[in-house]
Amino acid sequence: MRQKVFVSHPFIKNPKLNQKLVGDREKELLDDGKMPISPLALFRSFKEEHDDDFRADIMNVCYELIDMCDIINFYTCGVKLSNGQQLEYEYAKKNNKKIKFY
Predict the structure, then answer these.
(1) What domains sit in the chain, N to C, each tagged with a CATH number?
(2) What confidence score (pLDDT) does residue 54 get?
């Protein structure tokens, strides 16, 4: 079975560019024989103006995805983790997941 890799990537600051970058990351993982699991691929129509309850629902899905993955890859684009990435990081660390930063 292929290794499942959660792709944690910033989104809100530049959604269009970040969607493209996530697609590039997913392709790299696929080319390396791994299975990318990306919340940005699932929630492409997410808008910044969605309410806090909707955001909480998305984070709960992210946690479920992290649970099923072997490795959690954090792509920071040269800056600190976004708010959502910070929550994913804390969850992954608490659950003893293998974590890599790019």
Answers:
(1) 4-101 (3.40.50.450)
(2) 83
